Every structure is written in C-alpha cells, then in structure tokens.
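Troubleshooting log. The previous structure file for this entry was overwritten by mistake, so regenerating from the original sequence record. Sequence copied from the archived sheet and checked twice against the printout by T.R.
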Amino acid sequence: MRLIPLKSKVVEFIGAAALLSFICLSGAESAAADGESKTGLALAESAEIEGRNVQLSKELLNFSGSYKEQYDRFYLLLDRSGPTVFPDASYYLVSSIAFAPGRNEQEMNFSWYSPDTRNPGAVEYAKAGSRFAAGTEAAAVKQSIAHLDIASTGYASNEAIISGLEPSTEYIYRVGDGYGNWSETYSFHTRETDSYNFLLMGDPQIGASGNLKADIAGWNETLEKALDKYPMTSFIQSAGDQVESRNSEEEYEAYFSPDALKRLPTATTIGNHDNTIFYEYHFNVPNQNAELGNYDSSGGNYYFTYGDALFVNLNSNQTNGEEHVRFMEETIEATSGQDFKWKFLVFHHSIYSAAVHSTSDHVLGLREQLVPAIDRLEFDAVLMGHDHSYVRSHQMKGFKPLKNHMIEDGAVINPEGTIYLTGNSASGSKFYPMNEDPEPYSAVREQLEVPTFMNVAVTPTSLEFTTYRTDTMELVDTYKIVKDSSIEVDVPGLSDAVLTATGTILPTEATDFYPEVVLDVAGTNTEGGQYDLFGENITYRADPEGAVSISPTGNVSITENAEPGEVEIWAEVAADGQNLTTEPVLLSIVEHAETALVEAESDWTYLDDGSDPGSDWMQPDFDDSGWESGPSPLGYPEGDEREPFGEIQTVIDYGEDEFDKYATSYFRTSFDIDDAEAIGNYGIIDLEADDAAIIYLNGEEIGRYNMADGEVGYDDHLNDLDRENIPPENKSTRITLDEVALANLRDGENIIAVEVRQDNPQSSDVYWDMKFSVNLNTD
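Regenerated output below.
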C-alpha cells in the first residue's frame, strides 16, 4: 500500500491502474445513464477497490469532463516515480509542448511536460508520408531521447533536440515516454533560408485581462489570422511575457493551447511576467549561457542562426548591461566564421517605446548600457515588447534619430544605424496609454487597443516589417530596408550645423536642481531636412579651456578646479567634405544655493463643491475665507498614496454622484518672501497631479501639467477638450521656471493657486501636492 499525494489531498490505494479502471468504469456507467460523452464522476467519497477502501479526493469527485480530461487531470495531480502505467498502451499523457528553432535551421528544440517520472521521454520524427508503427523501427523514423529535468509539482520536464532537418520538407513528430506510449502525431514544415518570413508576437501575457478564456481566444485568433496571411512562415519570435502570473501552470497551459504552436516553432523571450524558473521548466532554447543574463533562475541569454541571419535573445530582466554586452560580443566571436547579412537582437523591455514604461529607470538604464554595443556590433533591427503599444523608431545611432536617407520605391537604401520595433499585445489582454508628447526617436507610434502582429520578410538584400491589426487585418505600418552594396547612396549634402544645450547652468557642487547639460549638434541638408551627424564628425571647443569636460555624447561637466564664471562652447563639424563651425552657446558655472518657498504637505485652502469660483479666484486679493482648508496631499479616495509625496492627508468632495464627479477642484496656498531681489533666475516645481493642473503665481499662469493651451471652463473634463492622449497616472513631474515666471514674486505675501482637473466624470481619484524651490543669488 502506498500514499500518493493528490495536490493537498491523499488517496490511499493499492495501484494506480486499479483506481483508473474504477474511474473509467464509473465514467462509462454514468455515460450510459445519461447518454452523454461527459462522465461527471458521480462517486462516493470512498470505494472498494481490490478489497481495499480508497479515499477519493474532492478535486476528483467535483471534476466533470470527458474521460480523457479526467484521466489527464488525475495523472497530472499524481506525484509519481518510475514508469507510468497506462490502461491504454497507445496513449501518452503530455502537456505544454514547446517547439522552438534549434541552433540552426537543421535543428529543432522540443520540451514538454509529462507526469513526474524518473524516465526520460523521447521525440520520434520522420518525413511526412512515413508511418509511426508500434513495435517496429522503420528506417525513415528517427528518435531523440530527451533530457529529463525537474518541473513544478507533479510534472517532469522533457527536453530534446532533433537534427538533420532538410529545407522545404514536411515532417511528422510525436513525443513519448520511452516505453512505447506516444502522444498524438503532429506535423511541421521546414522552409528555405535565403528568402523567408517570420512573425513577431508582442506580449501574449495570457491571464492579464482577468478573463483567461478571452485571452486564449485573442491569442489563438492572432496566430491563426497571421498564418492564414503568411502560410509559409518559418517561425514565430515572441517578445516576452507569455503569461501574466510567472508561476501559473494554468496560464502556461493556456498559452500553449493553440494548435498553431504545435506546427510552427516559436523562439521565446523572457519577460518580466515569466522571469522565474517556471520559464526554464517550459522552454528549451539553443546556445544558452546560463550565467550571462540570468535573472531569478529564469534562464540566460541565447542565440540561434537561420540562413545568413543571427538572432540574439537577451533576458532583459537582468539590468547588468555588462553581462548582455559580453554575451553579444562572445556570440559574434563564436559565429565569426559565418557571413551574416542580417543581425537581429531581441529582448523584452523596450528601450525606445512610447507608453508607461518608456522612462522607467530600468528601461533608461538598459538603453544607456546596450545602445553603444548595438551600434558597434552593427545590429540591423532590435525587436521588443513590454510597453503594450506599437512603436517604430527612426534609424538610430549614438542615441540619435537618423533621417537623411536615400529612399527608392518607399524603401530606405543602405541606411546607417539600427531600427527599433516595439510590438503591441498579440492577445489583447492588456494595453497601455501612450505618452502625450511624441518622442524624438519615434517615427510611428500607435495604440489601437486591439491585438496586432508583425511580419518580418527577409531576403538576401532586404528586410520588410509589416504590422497588422488582428480584428480587421488592416495594415498598421510598413517599413523596408534595402542593403545592397551595388547601389550607390545619394543623399542631400550638408548645408548648416547648429549647436544646442539642454541647460545653461553648471553648479560647482552636485545637485539635481538644474537639468543636466547635454550638447547636441543638428545638421541641415541642402534640401532643408536633417543631415545626420555622428560623434566622429564633431569636435567640441571651449573658452576658457580646461573649465569643462565634454564626453563624446555631449555630456558637460565641470573640472575639479573650475571657478564660477561663463564658458563659451562651440562645435567644429567635418562632414560631406566640408568644415563648419557652429555659433557658440554660453554656459554659467555657479555656486549654488536654493530655498523652498512651498514645501510638500503644506496647508491649502480648497473649493470642492463643483461651483464656478469666478475669473479672479487665482488673484492675491481674492477672499478664500469661505473655502475649506487642510494639509496636502489633497484628493480622494482616502488612503490613496503617490510617490514621492505620500498618502492623502485631506480628503476632498466629488459630489453626490460617483458616476458624475466634479470636473475641477481649486487650491490656494500662501508663502512670504523677505527680499525678492535675493531670488535667482531659476525655479522648479515638483508636483503630483491627477489628472491635470494649471498653476498660477500671484494671478499669473506659470505652468501647466497634462493640459493643452487655451481657456477651459470650470465644468470641462479633460475628455471634453481637444486632446488625443491622456498620460498615465502616478506620474510626478517637474516644471521649470525662468526669470520671466519668477518676476511675479514680490516682497511679503505671495499666492500659489492651482486648478486640478479630472479626465472624465467617472474617474476614480484626484491627487494634488507640490514643492516649489528657487535658487538664490550668491553675488
């Protein structure tokens, strides 16, 4: 007698076969009784089997489904050791078949789940037209024994590689336990490798919507429509986040459920929602370096080749860029004997996207670390996901967008730099709103809030990226690169160059009060468009010499012995056979001192009754004695918390109807200045506003957050205004103030007045707090 764990339950039994026979018999009796193919298992909590009393798990008792479904469920719940005993020798219980490109086009990598066992499984494969015959070893049939590894409780992970595959050939395959028990038979086609296509699928993230069935349906629809459109597809490349919950076997099973994934290999990438060892359990990737890029045991970086193309996949959950750069360099070295026409880099966290993650520290850190290596190693395209929206960048090099291209028949000819593409969700399980202002690197950006996919067509001389929306199969975007050394590139020549700086103040001591000073030289071509300039074209000069240091990317810092004063900087440009000198910019080295005029958590008066306060409510002499008052942060609901300001301290009203909330809340606070002449020429307001704000200083507007210019009525919600996009919540920001804005300061009492506006009447929250600081004259 043995005790077999059935998840948290225990079944006492003599043998699994006896219990399964009992289940089968009971199912047959139930089916005979109701005439249905579903069994229902209407069993007592215990039964006599071979003279022994068996306690049946409630999970079994309450589960209904076909006999095969019940059978599968029973065996996947068992904690087994040793060979599996099946009542039907032709049946092998298998789940989560993962079928991926191998090291090259002659190999495929397989992995699958079986009931927990100590015996490795196997893959049988043959050219179509062959026949798998039980008990025989046909010469046309090959077998690859799997490597057995651990998996989640109740399962074993089987990993196998098949090799010797020929191009443009149909194969059949099946997986088994090595004891003559096999799965059903599946098939796949190999393709040619000189001209072919593959599909990019962004973030399926099955389970993210909260409706697993809907996510499965969306995922399956995208796969089927994509393959109907491109039936000769060679493989799928996923951009990561296969599932929502990184340890959910239910979601993994749902991800693997489409039939398309059993007939087409899929190269997966590790996302932030599947970055645990469960990813390693499920996927068998080629040429993996388990040390470089590994994060939380989810797996390291890997690569494969297909024809004259190299595909490098990074685990971008690992923020150590040195590991990724080392892997890319080692991969290029390991494949140095191959003459690659195309190089693709794939990772999950998009470093050039346009939604909520585009400015996260994780993303910006990866960008800073990876881009120089991407440029140096000359990758043609970078394929990414994570931000659940579609973005195609300009050609990028040295962190700069390139636009001075030769174009023929809509294709970019022999361009410099790299194209970065971010795929939207392929299942439709989640979408993110896009940033309000377009990014300088974005050539095309879309949030259609429907599933999309991208086809990548590869030829010896071209790459073409074509993106479709799944619902209507309408074209979203297309972009083609031609790389042909026989074509002489002819672009407009250099006409002018202009030097700009992101700031003008360099403090003698480190502070985040002022913006970082970064120089940029923009070239203009003879047709008035952009002329692309690179670091090797630019030499920076400064007067006096030695006061500042300028990096190749234009970052300016002061030297150790720099004295307060002015520094003139200009650039010498050598390009297109010309030597140009830009007009200079003037920077100031200053001894910094600052003071806070309004602190966070200050006391404010506020109007929260939905009424119109009139046109002078922001003026210093306005009488707000009838308004309510309280400390910031102010807003609703109670307990709402935002970084860095913290939890709401004063809860304001939104009206009697939670589905028709007031559009605008009004706030005022005061501060005193003894000597306005001591105030310098630069100020900052750090704020958190949900959803939008207009700020006034002594009756004059000094800044807006998330608001277009123009007059706004007191009862206008943001959605009533002419705005295409609403940026994400929980996004604190900084408004900078110049001498013109600070000229509104005066001796004595000063008033800051703010109107905070909701995006729509059903919006769930309002939040307001700020800190106002200025620099001081040190002369």
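Confidence is low (pLDDT under 50) at residues 1-89, 723-730. Archived copy saved in two places this time.
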